[in-house]
Amino acid sequence: MNSFLDLLKEKIVVFDGAMGTYLQSLNLTLDDWGGANFENCSENLLYTRPDAIEQVHASFLEVGCDVIETNSFGGSEVVLAEFGIVEKTYEVNFRAAELAKRVAGDFSTPSKPRFVAGSIGPGTKLPTLGHIGYVDLKNAYVEQVRGLMDGGSDLLIVETCQDLLQTKAALSAIFDYFKKNKVRVPVIAQVTIETFGTMLNGTEIAAALTALDPFPIDVIGMNCGTGPKQMAESLKYLCESSTLPVSVLPNAGLPEVKDGKQHYDETPESFVAQVEHFAKDFGANIVGGCCGTTPEHLKMVVERLEGISPKVRDPKQTPAASSIYFQQPYSQDASFLIVGERVNASGSKKMRDLLEAENWDGLVNLAKSQEKEGAHILDVNVDFVGRDGVADMNELVSRLVTNVKIPIMLDSTEWEKMEAGLQHAGGKCLLNSTNYEDGEPRFLKVLELAKEYGAGIVVGLIDEAGMARTFDDKVRIALRAFKQATEFGIEAHDIFFDPLALPISTGIEEDRRNAEQTIAAIKDIHAQMPDANIILGVSNISFGLNPASRIVLNSIFLHECVEAGMNSAIVNASKILPLNRFSEREIEVALDLIYDRRKWDSYIGTSAEHELIVGGGTADGDKSVPAPNAICIYDPLTEFTTLFEGKTATSMKHDIANLPIEDRLKHHIIDGEKIGLEDSLKVALEQYPPLEIINTILLDGMKTVGDLFGSGQMQLPFVLQSAEAMKSAVKFLEPFMEKADSTNKGTLVLATVKGDVHDIGKNLVDIILTNNGYKVVNLGIKQPIDSILESLAETKADAVGMSGLLVKSTLVMRDNLEIMNERGINIPVILGGAALNRRYVDNDLIPLYDGELFYARDAFDGLHTMDKLTQGEQSKVQSPKSKVARAGNGSEPEAVATGLSTLAVDSLPEQIETVTDAEDLVGEDAKLGKAAARVSTRSTGDSTHTNRSDVSTDTVIPTAPFYGSKVVEITDLNKVFSFINETALFKGQWQYKQGKRSKEEYDAILEETVYPKFAEIKAQAIREKLLEAKLVYGYFPCQSSGNDLIIYQDDSQTERMRFTFPRQPSDQRGGKNLCLADYFAAVDSGRVDVVAFDLVTMGRKASEHSAKLFKADNYTDYLLFHGLSVEAAEALAEMWHKRIRTELGFADKDAEELAKLFHQGYQGSRYSFGYPACPRLEDQEKLFELLQPERIGVELSEEFQLDPEQSTSAIIVHHPDAKYFNIE
């Protein structure tokens, strides 16, 4: 064992390549295989053609490989049974090891020893999916392990793991053999990450590492599935996060069929370059090959890595649990670790009812609700009198592991039930709990389970004398358990102490100080054992109190425990509230109750003087001690229960019941509170006609909402909640209204202009105006001017609105205004949209248009303008020019609103000179600066000249991994979400801006409101499959000529097409004659360059779901989901840009912080068509010809914009000098 592990410290160890690929090259006949029944059963060749196996081994040893793997990949009973030779399992593996050992011995020398790794493959059945039971699978490995060991294997490798539960079964069989036979050889575990970024069951690499880390393996790594390019990201994570040596055995690229044969695209040269990168830069200790790798590949690897010492890594381990999907760190940055408590038969009546009915689907939904409410880990307890707990645990956990994304805490007083759950859980579970109540044997039994299955443990502070109540007892038991568990081999970070939250609500004297003693113990345990964790079942503290008071006491007690050092709690997250929701009096009395601050009529001294406080003190310090027979004059328990007499959890909200009905209704609107709204409206109907309720009371409430928004005191999501309440109120009142009644203050025809697919801004205008008494005729997206004017004529509307996102849309608006001039339509106009600013409207569009023209930065700006226009107060409107609207026949002027601003996504400040405007610069604008991203009003010269910039011409040209295009689907949305620019999402899309708030105030909003919404909407998108992350990308040979970029066919000679880009005018202020073409090798250089293009989308379903929410008046959900979907498309583009940098070989130059990537913290640039460097949207047609994105459901509009909206495309430049620049 030591010789192999010692070798790992000295050099990069090289494993052999593909057994199967080599055998296929030998053109073996059916007779060679042993007949048709054994075709492709390489293990049978050990009987029919052992010389072929020997030839494979020798070929890899001849080129210098240090380790060869036995021909036993399919040697388990499960696989051999399919060929009808299960009885030969031991013999097959013995022969495989013996043969390999003999051949290796022929090449081994003292200076270059050779080793044999006994290969154990995954088999053909996935236990997580119920194909085979854990115990049966483990037993199927027993004979394979025995044969490989008896045959002389120097080490064992469990490889190509696709199901973590299968991996655990194999490892368990191995370590059982070691224990039984008192032997030990090194063990390697290797998982397979597929092209979609996870293992076959959906496991991320972090979850795989977390699940396997507790096992006493010697090396962890990856093999098969993909080529080295696709492995880079996951391998880098392993090297940065695992304390073990890391192995990587890639395929020779991705397979494709050529001339009827399977072909892999990595040449020995390209393969070794990436493998060398893995060893030298990432710190991989073992390299080698899998499918498609030949002796030629490995020969070059051996030569290239000869003499290279292993890189010294400094891994950052993350203590965590995991599901089969994700890792869940024990330490939460912005919270404590929340363990959901409702799937616990001991404490949840709903759980017991569902369990008794054996409603497994209902139980799964209950578990999902815990996940949705914010639980990080799911507590599962099936202890229920009269039921078979082992059977129940089997039924329930087998369903939960695939349906719930968060890890599981198996909760029972009986270890047999815990083990039943462990045999279905491929992730890393927590076992709740073990203790000393029944002595050390039971305590140790749970530790054995944790060791065998790789779990963390919860230790209840209970010993043979019972539950620990005092500080001394709690700390004493914790120290005893910590020593014994760590000596047993449990890592300190996998130990959770439960110091027991016992009730303080009984009035019994011995219970009075339960909370105080627990808090003191938490503080001391945390100080003495800082690597361990502390967990509590918080709700026990308030047992017996009414629900309203329990929420308050539990929340405040939880806060105190966290302050003392607790980092995890078993709670119902929906029943915990922040302290600012409680009154000062409620908090004061709750703290008095927690720390037993009763007051007496006489005292005899302090607790310290009378030694009445246990060693170590308490969280509350010394106290005055009441005299004998003293009378209690203040009891916080009595005071606390009195505070909540008659209150319910619902009644804890702000009480508006006693307000006048007018104020009550306004509160409903301002607070966005729909509960009780109909009852209030019924009362109002007794005094007012419905139309008056709407026009005076409710609209007054909406006016207050607008004022609060305008002053920065209310943010957009809360505005939309108010709008939802308003919509509900109007809908309720409509049946009571006479037909002649009208709430219409005016009519607006609203549309996104021709060719533009962006509708969020337009729809937000619809929401605000509709709920302020206007009728809005929303025509939708991509509307030509004829449709807009036709609707204007039909509806006799007071206003028309047009909206647009990109610069191209401003040109469409200009054309529309000219058409309106030609047709004699000269009514007032309101402009807005992301592509606009007030300066452009003032200087370019207002002089052009014959009627009144207004610019509205946001929807409320548009509302105020409409109010004044429709009320005949046009003279008060802040129009940029003072001419009078000519509306025909001397009638009151109508208004046309062209392009009301996109409030959530599209609005931008008028100027960018001030620091505060930085809040509005997100996404591409943050990199580019708004002046470069928006319409300019001046031109300083010719942008077609060809005076080249001084961009470097001798840069290294990377090698394209392929020419042509590929389609990719990302099935794990969390990978996409990890690249989301939170600033762009929160401040730009969702409009949660800091404004005049302090950083602390804004951070509180983020933590209490924004991040929970973020987590919830991401979970919904994953759960309901609302986003479909797809992309098409490709590489193409190219050269530049003047301002042109020439794209060649794959032969790098035949011109396919060319792009012509503008160049900075020679007299542009601050210009450098920059042009995109300058970043590519010129024709006369003699070098052929490479350019990448990509197009990403989150799918049409995203637009459909957004439209569904809008139609259903779910305004808040509409804003949140739409914003996420748009920003997710940008995240996918950012993610794939990183992938392209990786494939081109310079991603190692990326900034480590994600935030810096959003500001070009990497080599090269990604330019989207429509921005100044490549302003021609028409060039999208050429991109479509190259990439054919119709394959992923993306189309091009008449104005060359991408449909669906949640899509983006780019030309990707590798040149180190490439940055965003402006062309005026």
What can you tell me about this protein's structure?
The chain has 1224 residues and is α/β, with parallel strands linked by helices. Helix content is 40%, strand content 14%. The protein contains 41 helices and 40 strands. The chain has an eight-stranded parallel β-sheet with strand order 1-10-7-6-5-4-3-2. It has an eight-stranded parallel beta barrel with strand order 13-14-15-16-17-20-21-22, surrounded by five helices. A hairpin with a 2-residue loop joins strand 18 and strand 19. The longest helix has 30 residues, at 1115-1144. The protein is flat and about 100 Å long.
Secondary structure blueprint with pairings:
Blueprint: H1 2-10, E1 13-14, H2 19-25, H3 30-33, H4 45-48, H5 50-62, E2 67-69, H6 77-82, H7 89-107, E3 115-120, H8 134-150, E4 155-161, H9 164-181, E5 187-191, H10 205-212, E6 219-223, H11 228-241, E7 246-249, E8 255-258, E9 261-264, H12 268-282, E10 286-287, H13 295-305, E11 320-322, E12 327-329, E13 337-340, H14 349-356, H15 360-372, E14 377-380, H16 389-403, E15 408-411, H17 415-422, E16 430-434, H18 440-453, E17 456-460, E18 462-463, E19 466-467, H19 471-488, E20 495-498, H20 514-528, E21 533-537, H21 547-564, E22 568-571, H22 584-594, E23 599-600, E24 603-606, E25 624-626, E26 632-634, H23 636-643, H24 661-671, H25 677-685, H26 690-710, H27 716-733, E27 746-752, H28 760-770, E28 774-778, H29 785-795, E29 799-803, H30 807-822, E30 829-831, H31 838-845, E31 853-855, H32 859-870, H33 924-928, H34 930-933, E32 964-970, H35 973-977, H36 982-989, H37 999-1023, E33 1029-1041, E34 1044-1048, E35 1055-1060, E36 1089-1097, H38 1100-1111, H39 1115-1144, H40 1154-1157, E37 1165-1167, H41 1180-1187, E38 1195-1196, E39 1202-1203, ...
Parallel strand pairs: 1-10, 2-3, 3-4, 4-5, 5-6, 6-7, 7-10, 13-14, 13-22, 14-15, 15-16, 16-17, 17-20, 20-21, 21-22, 27-28, 27-29, 30-31
Antiparallel strand pairs: 8-9, 11-12, 18-19, 23-26, 24-25, 32-33, 33-34, 33-36, 34-35, 36-40, 37-40, 38-39
Helix pairs in contact: 5-7, 7-8, 8-9, 11-12, 12-13, 15-16, 16-17, 17-18, 19-20, 20-21, 21-22, 22-23, 24-25, 24-26, 24-27, 26-27, 27-39, 28-32, 38-39
